[in-house]
Amino acid sequence: MIDTIIQILKQKDIAGWILKQEKTKSEELFFVKDKLDQNRLCETNEYHVTVYVDFEEDGERYKGNAEALISAGDSPAEIEARLDQVIRSARFVKNRWYPLATNASQDVEKPEEISNIAILKSQYDALHEAIFTDYGTKSKVNSVEIFAVDGTIRLVTSTGTDVTFPSNRFMFELVTDCQGNEESVEIFNDYTFGILDIDQIRSIVQEQLRNTEARGIAVKAPKLDNINIILRGAAVEELLQCYITQATDEAVYNRYSRAKRGERFNAPDALQSLNIRMEPNLSHAVSKAPLDRDGVILHPYTLYSDSVVENFRTTQQISSYMGEKNIGCPTPFVVEGSDTSYDDFLKEDYLEIVVFSSFISSPVEGDFGGEYRLAKLVQNGKATYITGGSISENLFEAQNRFIFSKESEHRQNSITPKAILIRKQD
After folding, report:
1. pLDDT in single tens digits along all 426 residues of the chain
2. Contacts 24+ apart (CB under 8 A), 252-258
């Protein structure tokens, strides 16, 4: 199939193409309580083709592009018809001309080949115990859905790149419930990792069970003014992702970034220095990859060093417009913490957001926050679980009051601090 697609592409009057083949095999388990209700196997094989067309209008050179999804069952005639359609579409896209990416060699650092399906089969009993054991809480596991996925990606380009690498992930959806003081409460969360890790899953299940029990006794959130706020969980990665976006060439080129190479991003008197690096092959990350979508071979690099912008995360198109060297656009990243431990965050009054109903962060305006389902409020030594409140902050106004915990956690595409403390205003 892939040879058929390439052969058709080579016959077309186009400037170039990128072909990505994604093959996956998954084992899926569905539990009600601790009983296996259903299991199934699923295999997919898809081809994503991006075509590039060069053309001129009124003396200006353009490079248009468009994408096609091709299924493994498509006939050669269907493939050609679909490619002809996207080639026509590409001629209506007026991107200023730029060269396509080329690689001097195919020597890439590929992610380690690990089979989540094999781990699931060999550690099934340990996984079952980690999820369904009695941890002594009033809350219990209601249902679980597990997806162990093994896959490969092959990236072939018209400029000579041809690399195949593994792409695996492990996902589980966990529903826990508990009889609360006034009504039954339920918490649903889904978690995604690159690698099945029993210890990490055990920790997550215990925490969600504790949170569900706490949600059952939570009271309506009071009005709060100027208190230390602690962010935990997925919100930490999502908020810190704003720094990645701000230092991406597209944001800089389109002037919605405040990042300037060689300059500090936060104030000199900020409580926390920014030390952030891109790690394309971060071992546990879902989106680890040795190449980006343009076919550029990826290597680790520093984004911020002591709050100074060292590099921009670059794409082939925009870096060429900016006259920048294209060092690639990886997804996984690492953020260094401070010398302050998470336990030190708890020595003053604080509001710790445990579970958001929805957490929203805007990397452009900098606004972040949302309504929370569960938070822990500590005032004058008294701890109360509360629900139904919300926070609203702005990254650019609050970042000088950030402190990152010394401890870190593995999250979906990062290693990031366990918690972020937003100190109250003086």
Report:
1. 899 999 999 999 999 999 999 999 999 999 999 999 999 999 999 999 999 999 999 999 999 999 999 998 899 999 999 999 999 999 999 999 999 999 866 678 888 889 999 999 999 999 999 999 999 999 999 999 999 999 999 999 999 999 999 999 999 999 999 988 878 999 999 999 999 999 999 999 999 999 999 999 999 999 998 999 999 999 999 999 999 999 999 999 999 999 999 999 999 999 999 999 999 999 999 999 999 999 999 999 999 999 999 999 999 999 999 999 999 999 999 999 999 999 999 999 999 999 999 899 999 999 999 999 999 999 998 999 999 999 999 999 999 999 999 999 999 999 999 999 999 998
2. 252/312, 252/322, 253/318, 253/321, 253/322, 256/364, 258/396
User: For residues 417 and 407, what is the distance between their CA atoms, to the nearest angstrom?
Assistant: 6
- The count of C-alpha atoms lying within 13 angstroms of the C-alpha of 116, restricted to the half-sphere facing its C-beta, is 28
Give the pair of three-digit tokens for residue 396.
Answer: 């650019």
Q: Which residues pair with 5 in a beta bridge?
A: none
Quote the longest CA-to-CA distance of the chain: 75
Question: Which residues, in sequence order, are CB contacts of 134 under 8 Å at separation 6+?
Answer: none
Q: Which two tokens stand for residue 381?
A: 């030594």
Q: What is the value of pTM for the model shown? A: 0.93
Are 14 and 159 within 8 A, CB to CB? no
The answer to whether the beta carbons of residues 245 and 422 sit under 8 Å apart is no
DSSP codes joined into one string, 27-77: EEEEEETTEEEEEEEEEEEEEEEEEEEEEEETTEEEEEEEEEEEETT--HH
| Alpha carbon distance 20, 212 (integer Å) | 42
Checking DSSP bridges between strand 140-157 and strand 169-179, what pairing results, if any?
A: antiparallel
